[in-house]
Amino acid sequence: MRVMAQIAMVMNLDKCIGCHTCSVTCKQAWTNRGGVEYVWFNNVETRPGQGYPRRYEDQETWKGGWELNKRGRLRLKAGGRLSKLAHIFSNPQLPAIGDYYEPWTYEYANLLDAPLGDDVPVARPRSLLSGKPMKIEWSANWDDDLGGVNEHGALDPMVAKVREQAAEKVRFEFEQTFMFYLPRICEHCLNPSCVASCPSGAMYKRQEDGIVLVDQDQCRGWRMCVTGCPYKKVYFNHRTGKAEKCTLCYPRLEVGLPTVCSETCVGRLRYLGVMLYDADKVLEAASAPEDTDLYEAQLGVFLDPEDPVVRREAERAGIAQDWIAAARRSPVHALISRHRVALPLHPEYRTMPMVWYIPPLSPVVEALTETGFDGEDTGNLFGAIDTLRIPLEYLAELFTAGDTAPVRASLEKLAAMRGAMRPGLLAGGTSGPAPVDEDIARSVGMSGEEMYALYRLLALAKYEERYVIPTAAVGDARRLEESVLPDECSLDYAGGPGMIGSGPYGEGSGAAPPVSVENFHVLRDRQSADAPADPGRSRVNLLNWDGRGHPAGLFPRRTDGTGTTDRTDGMKGTGAAPRPPRNAHDADDEEQR
Fewer CB within 10 Å, N side or C side of the chain? Predict the structure, then answer.
């Protein structure tokens, strides 16, 4: 047993209202710079729909993820080293800008500066890539709220898969249509195919928390990672020539804050916590012979933090006590392994994703209520799960590689929770936990205590219960404190009399600050400034660059025709933590890289 820890996320799709607040705040925090106008580390898709980029789930076209070869061993769907070498200068399996969308702005100046006349001035769209006028034909939210479903609905790859066995259930007449929202970020997989696809070794999985990052100094812009990621959550910055992706807001996690998308989520549907897993079992689980076995196989990789043997092995592996304690209180572990209501997104890609989803039950409840029946009654709900317009087959294609049994089990537990808690909540006047209908709880294999724990986690959990994050900053506090030079003024806080340089504890408190501290104190000012970023005051990297100017270290040295250099080189702020040695399970042998 080789115990490792991973920060994971669960999203409760029952609560997502499709407001896109998470997408907008992520965009503002991470991709508001030049070269990434089209990039959405977090996006919210309406299902059914083609997704973003368009039809990203069609791996026969995009060749993402892993597959089993004839010997039953894992290989990249896009091919091994020889195939990558043959296409290293021309990768044919890449979404084009039309599959994402060509970002645009509007000629707002035309509205303000147009002379008085009979014509009404308009702000025509102009491409942010070419600067030329353009016609808007597609965007990241083109399918939003089933927009154009009659024309585009059948293009959803999941609809195409379930057409044969559920043709009557997947129809796009207005009165038959179902929909729900699916927020997506990078999955930060246990077996990431993007890492194995990178020829330059720039992509890596952090050993301490499992977050997958891109080393900007190492990246050579081959874009094999874009092909290798089956979720298409790696993007190419055409301005810097580097790959970028969701970082799970690791600078925030390191100081004990949840991700930006979690912090700003209106529906409070996201949960963050620690999962302990056995790294020695990852390869075996990802190599399960049948796609429908992958969900149970990945559950078998996760470890129970209440097991004394697991805790002892975790300590032996160097996992800190606060991480082990966080794993014991983890809401993610409770939803995935204990209550088993959360499911992985497309386990058939064999990447072992670590962002899981609770399937939506609300459309069933709403449809029942509209027919005149009690939508919260357990008997009605159980019968409706198989028969109403939200097909189990469609959900199963998303979350369990086509196996409807785990989806049905999850929905039945959610339905039972509503029915079991309802009598006690309606009675009112109780001090303490509301009573639970034990018979309903037993019908889905749960005790009354377990049912109440699930109810509390999904309906009542407070901030500190939804986000159980051990902080890296606590362990580094002594080292950072000792980094302050003794002969410097103790009043060197921001704006204070001792402000003489740049450091983590105010100006002049030492050498270059940790990126987690730097981003919260420097990025805030830099994003609201009117002037370009000033590389003289502090480091500039992809995490805090405002997209203006040419900071040293971000761009290569370039010489014009006269021999003078117009871009300097010096600082190398990469925006990523130093890369540790790769985990042994990242690639077992040449075939599995």
Answer: N
In 10 A of CB 87, how many CB atoms? Answer: 16
The pLDDT value given to residue 100: 93
What are the residues facing 205 on neighbouring strands?
212
Q: Tell me, what's the pLDDT at 108? A: 85
pLDDT tens digits for range 413-456: 998 888 888 776 766 645 556 678 888 888 889 988 999 999 99
Q: Which two tokens stand for residue 380?
A: 């009605």
* CA–CA separation, 378 and 449 (whole Å): 18
Predicted pLDDT of residue 561: 54
Taking a C-beta distance cutoff of 8 angstroms, is the pair 413, 444 a contact? yes
What dihedral angle (degrees, nearest 10) is formed by the CA atoms of 56, 60, 66, 69? 180
Report pTM.
0.78
Calpha distance 372→368 (Å, rounded): 7
Which segments in the chain show pLDDT lower than 50?
Answer: 173-175, 429, 477-518, 533, 535-537, 563-593
Q: Which residues, at least 6 apart from 586, have a Cβ–Cβ distance to it below 8 Å?
A: 191, 192, 195, 196, 205
Report angle CA 393, 184, 322 to the nearest 5 degrees: 110
- Is the dihedral angle over the CA atoms 56, 57, 59, 63 positive or is it negative? positive
3-state secondary structure 399-460: HCCCCHHHHHHHHHHHHHHHHHHHHHHHHCCCCCCCCCCHHHHHHCCCCHHHHHHHHHHHHH
378-385 helix and 362-370 helix, angle to the nearest 10 degrees = 110
Residues 151 and 172: beta-carbon distance below 8 Å: no
* Most distant CA pair in the chain, distance: 84
Q: What is the pLDDT of residue 525?
A: 55
Other beta carbons within 10 Å of 84: 20
Phi, psi of 311 (to 5 degrees): -65, -40
Q: What is the CA radius of gyration of the chain?
A: 25
